[in-house]
Amino acid sequence: MKHLTKLLATGLIALAAQGTQAQTVNAWNLSRDMMNSSTQGPVWYFMSQDMSQDLNAKGGSYTLMNQYQSSCRNDVSTQCWLNTLYNTLYIGVIKPTTTAPTPYNLPRGAIHLHPDDTQRAVIGWKAPRAGTFLFSGMIASLNQCGWYPDGLVWALKTSTQTLRAPSQVTAMGEITFTQSVTLSAGSMVYLSIDKNQSYSCDGATVDLIVTTSN
């Protein structure tokens, strides 16, 4: 797949081998950290947001996903967070040691997710201290359904700022971004993945790395 080749070239996605990579105090890697944890927080949070809330608006309310599954909906290759009230909503990662077939033939360590008809999939990051942080990310569409290939919509926000206004990722397309933001300790940054018009074929792969020199 074209976007996976580009991901490997840029190094944005962590293709983890066996074992645990030590986390530095100045860098947080979504792929690595999600593979090594089965809890929410203290930095990464896996959430949803009702689509009745304006994606263009600052802030908003978010709901923590309520269930962790070590085999995501019986898929032994993936561990994930999901909300049991919604059929297609989840945020997962391919296990670092899996030998099973993987969704979309994704590599070990790949994050993949799906919004629901009424709920956005949201990855939250909580600043562990005050400082200026650089967010480096990638979002790629994994589905192209013959009946409605309309892609995804994404946005990056804090409770008080719109860092990246909602924009589209076309079906089977991808985007990369970098965004610097100054935060106080405990501030949240939200990466939201929304359906476009249809939610039927909105599988996505995401990578996110946060760094600071503070």
What key phrases describe this protein's structure?
eight-stranded antiparallel β-sheet; 2 helices; six-stranded antiparallel β-sheet; 214 residues; mainly beta; Jelly Rolls; single chain
Query: Count the helices. How many?
Result: 2
Number of DSSP-assigned strands: 14
Q: What's the story with the biggest beta sheet? A: 8 strands, antiparallel
Shape, per Cα inertia axes? globular
- What is the SS-derived class? mainly beta
Q: What oligomeric state do these chains adopt?
A: single chain
| Sequence of secondary-structure elements | HEHEEEEEEEEEEEEE
Q: Proportion of β residues?
A: 35-45%
CATH fold descriptor: Jelly Rolls
Gross CATH architecture: Sandwich
Would you identify the regions where 5 or more consecutive residues have pLDDT less than 50? Answer: 7-24
The rounded Rg comes to 16 Å
Query: Helix amount, in percent?
Result: under 10%
Summed over residues and divided by their number, the pLDDT gives a mean of: 86
Q: What is the level 1 CATH name?
A: Mainly Beta
Give the N-terminus to C-terminus distance in angstroms: 37 Å
- The domain count comes to 1
Description:
It is a single chain. The chain is mainly β. It has one domain: Jelly Rolls. The chain contains 2 helices and 14 strands. Strands 1, 4, 5, 6, 7, 9, 12 and 14 form an 8-stranded antiparallel beta sheet that branches. Strands 3-2-8-13-10-11 form a 6-stranded antiparallel beta sheet. A hairpin with a 7-residue loop joins strand 5 and strand 6. The chain is globular. About 8% of the residues have low confidence.
